Amino acid sequence: MSADLSWMIIRNNNAFLSKKTNIKKPFSKEPMNLTNLASKRYNGLVHDNSIGVESAPNNKGFTVITKKRKLANKPGKSLVKVNFTSGPRRSLFKLRKYLLGNNYRKDLIQASLRRASAILESQKRATLTLKKLGKSKKPDA
Description:
141 residues; alpha+beta; three-stranded antiparallel β-sheet; two-stranded antiparallel ribbon; 4 helices; globular
């Protein structure tokens, strides 16, 4: 089924859609959506070739999930997960090179870099606050 037809079917009603009052553009909670906007461009369900970025299992780095085009009819086998844990600057450089080298959609590269950067920044803040909380005052003896 084409991406256009799939989008026409699921654009107003799907399980990941989050509509709220006083918000013109609804949000989407699907795993392969980089910006969490309910639009055809960023939708990961309808495209055969999409990208998803999420935090790594151990909260050190991030994981990139990509779809294989050849296995579009087998959703369980079509996902490929790659971990990037070699530091923020190097990981972002490697992510860009990985996506360009595998001919993924060029319109999603900048959005994926932003998502990965936000994940790395949140992990950095979490470790800093944990270190501050771990310090204790010297006991009076």
